[in-house]
Each structure stands twice: as structure tokens, then as C-alpha cells.
Amino acid sequence: ILGGGFTGAAVAWHLARQSSRPLITVIEPRAFLGGGLAYSSEEPSHRVNVPASRMSLSPDEPEHFWRWLAHDGEAERDPDAVWSNGDIFPRRQVFGRYVAEHLGPYIETGAIRHVRDHASGVKRDGGGWIVVTSGQPIAADMVVLAMTHPSPDVPAALGPIADAGGFVADVYRADALDSIAPQASVLIVGSGLTSADTVAELDRRGHRGRILAVSRHGLRSRGHPQMRGEPFGDFTSRPATTSLALLERVRSTLAAADTDGVNWQSVFDQLRLQGPAIWSALALDERTRLVRRLRAFWDVHRFRIAPQVEAVLDRRHAEGTFDNIAASLVASNDDGDDLAVTLRRRGQRQFETMHFDAVINTTGPAHGKALHANPALRSLADAGLIRIDRHGLGIETAPDSRAVGPEGKPLDGLFVAGPLARGTFGELMGLPEVARHAQTVASQVEAQLGAPSAIAVAR
């Protein structure tokens, strides 16, 4: 596993609880395991975007985190976490603390060893593996790749301002928004979860200037229903075999839900639950077509924003200080006093140049370049041991979660967990799905352990 964020921590936790009790080494530069990029943020406005009652290290106990919250008293310390319908959306760092606390006992006993370092390479060593770090190399019988999300690419049109003082290439950097003045005009490139979080953080910091979010489709992440219902629909009894048939099935199910007074979110909850079966029923070309044509629409309905964040966006829009448009970027330049960005609105031919004090890139992780951006993955790719999946989502992975190596055969002792395996398993971005896959990977590793072995979890 390369990664000590939620995916790597979850795999390590499940392994430490299983019968063989292997020696588990987690290589993660952060101070604690389980936080990763998503759940180590100290920004108060960054909240989990799934109700606490549906977040858990243990997929078989969906209220595991919710019960921990009740015992920990976090809801009393942060009353804004409790929404009007009773659902709890705590700050992200709280979930990271929950994961870290559950790994703590295993770290204390030595069942899990946390090495604060980066993995710079992975290579075969006879029947095992060597993980290269800045310190001593680590020998392992098995390695699990559970990488963090790669940093977003800077769109080509923004290349001319990439080094400008008002350009923010990576909003996850701790000081990314520090230089943005309260009345600054801001362009946010992207309109998904990260974009919404950026608006909420700017607002929390006292920003009251104009904010414009731009994306190709102009689709804003949707919110949660006031009252949650049970998943609705059936997509597996006669699974669609083409992306068009699946789209028609979704539309007809949404119409049936509306007739029955069921919210659309319940339909998408069912799509999530039945996602692996839906994905596996599609031919490879149909999966690629689905990703290319419908991914943006799926993402904004599937990855909903916390209601606290949605309320900020709605308020700012009503005040006239936030808008979201569909447009493509054409060019940019640094005028000295501000940043000029030329764009073309969707459905129009003419170009439009707008001026901003700051431009923030929130285009999302560059999953397609993960094998080049991460040195450990690059070392495996250069050796011909792993390759990008045909959909450009991550690493090609076998159904048993092993990486597919030379000649299309799964590699013994090299597993892929979490989002990098979604080309094979479909929906592997939401926490419930990642938790389930982490449990599955741990079980696959356990099944291959003939005797206690060393497993390296690296970043």
C-alpha cells in the first residue's frame, strides 16, 4: 500500500484485527495515520460531505463513527455540525482523529509500525519486494498501493499565469488562501466539492468580494435531502449493458421516484450501492464511454456537499457575490495589476476576457498522471510492473485487487486499494465504498498469507 491516509489506514486496521497478525509497516509522512489529504485539514469550514451515521472504518457497522462521536462529545463542542434534520456533518479533521484513535492501540503494541517518510521506489526482490525510502529500505512479502490523490493539473490555458502571485495552483496547501484580500475578485476553476469548500473557506475568512466559478458544464455539486429515505430502484436484476441503456434506466427510475414522492438522492444512493454490479455489466468500451460522456453529471449528483457548505453558496449567490457558469478557458495573462482570463461561455462563439485579483485551480486530482507524479508508482511503471487502466482512472487491477503486471497477469504480493483501483471496480471515491474495498483487500491479503508475513503500507 502506498499511503497512510484513510485507505491505507483502513487496510492496516483490518489486517491488524485478522487472525494471522502480520507485521504491518505504514509509510506515511504525516504525523498520524488516517488523516491523509482529506481528513487532516485544520480548516473549520471543511466538513465531511456524508452524514456521520454513514461513515465508518468498519463497513459492517455503518454507525461506528456516529457512536464514537456521541461518546467523544464532538457534537456538543461543535453545534454547527448538527443540521436541522438531525444529521451530523463534523469537521473533516474530527474524522481523521477517529481513524487515528482506532489505529492507536495497534501502533502501541507494535502490530502496526508507522514510518514517517516517503516511498521513493518499489522493486521486486526474489519472491518479495523492497520499498525504497530516504532511510533504510524495507523488505516486504506483500505491498499494498493506497496512494493519495495526485495534485491537480494546471489547465493549459492558465499556463501563462502559473507563476503569478495571485494564482493558486494547489488549494490544499495550508497557506493557499492567505494572500487573498477580503474584497478581492476571485476566479475558481472547477465547480465540484473542492470548489465549494474553497468558497466556504474564503467566506469563513471574511472574504466578501466577487467569486466566479467556471467549469466546462457549469454543474454545481448538489446537496443532501432534508429527509433521507431508503435507496430506490433496481439496476441489477436486468443490468444495462450499454451506457445509453443505463442512462435511460436512471431517467425512468428518477421519474418513478418522483411519482412516488421519493427524492432523487435515494435513486443515486441505490446506484452507489449497486455500483460494482452495474460497472461489471458494461463492456470495456461502454465503461470508457460512460466516463467520458456522463462522469461530470454523475459526480455532481453523487458527491454532494455538506449542508453547511451549501448554505454558504446559496447565501453568497443571493447576495450577488457568487456565481457559477459553464465555459471553457481560452487564454490568460498577467497584467501586472490583475490576472486576465479569456473564456468562451458554453453555447457561444465569442470570447470574453475577465479580470481577477486571484485565480484558484480546483480542477480535481490528476488521476491519469498518477503513475508519473508519484515516484514509487513511477518506479513500478518504469519496470513494466504496473500500468494505467484503459479508462485513465488509475492502475489496472485484477478482480482480486492485485495489480496487473506484464502479459496481463496479476502480480503476486502487489495489491491496489482505494481510488486507484476504480477502473476495475467502478465507484471507489466515496468513503463507504473505499472502506468496503479496504476490508476486501485485507481479506485478500489474509487469504494469501501462508505464514506471518511483512506487509509494507507506503506513501
Distance between the termini: 7 Å
Uncertain segments of ≥5 residues (pLDDT<50)?
Answer: none
Structural class: alpha/beta
Percent helix: 25-40%
Task: Report the radius of gyration as a whole number of Å.
Answer: 22 Å
Overall pLDDT metric: 91
- Largest sheet properties: 7 strands, mixed
- Sum up the overall morphology in one term: globular
Beta-strand content bin = 15-25%
Helix count? 15
Biggest β-sheet: strands ordered side by side in the sheet: 7-13-8-9-10-11-12
Supply database-style keywords.
7-stranded mixed sheet; 459 residues; 15 helices; alpha/beta; 16 strands
Walk me through what this model shows:
The strands form three sheets. A seven-stranded mixed beta sheet has the order 7-13-8-9-10-11-12. A six-stranded mixed beta sheet has the order 2-1-16-6-15-14. Strands 3-4-5 form a three-stranded antiparallel beta sheet. A hairpin with a 4-residue loop joins strand 10 and strand 11. It is of the alpha/beta class.
Summarize, please:
This protein is an alpha/beta fold. Helices cover 34% and strands 18% of the residues.
Helix-strand layout with pairing:
Elements: H1 6-16, E1 23-27, H2 36-39, H3 64-72, H4 74-77, H5 92-109, E2 112-115, E3 119-125, E4 128-133, E5 138-140, E6 142-145, E7 167-168, E8 186-189, H6 193-204, E9 211-215, H7 243-259, H8 264-273, H9 275-281, H10 284-302, H11 307-319, E10 322-334, E11 339-345, E12 352-356, E13 358-361, H12 370-373, H13 375-382, E14 402-404, E15 410-416, H14 422-425, H15 431-447, E16 454-457
Parallel strand pairs: 1-2, 1-16, 6-15, 6-16, 7-13, 8-9, 8-13, 9-10
Antiparallel strand pairs: 3-4, 4-5, 10-11, 11-12, 14-15
Helix pairs in contact: 1-5, 1-15, 6-11
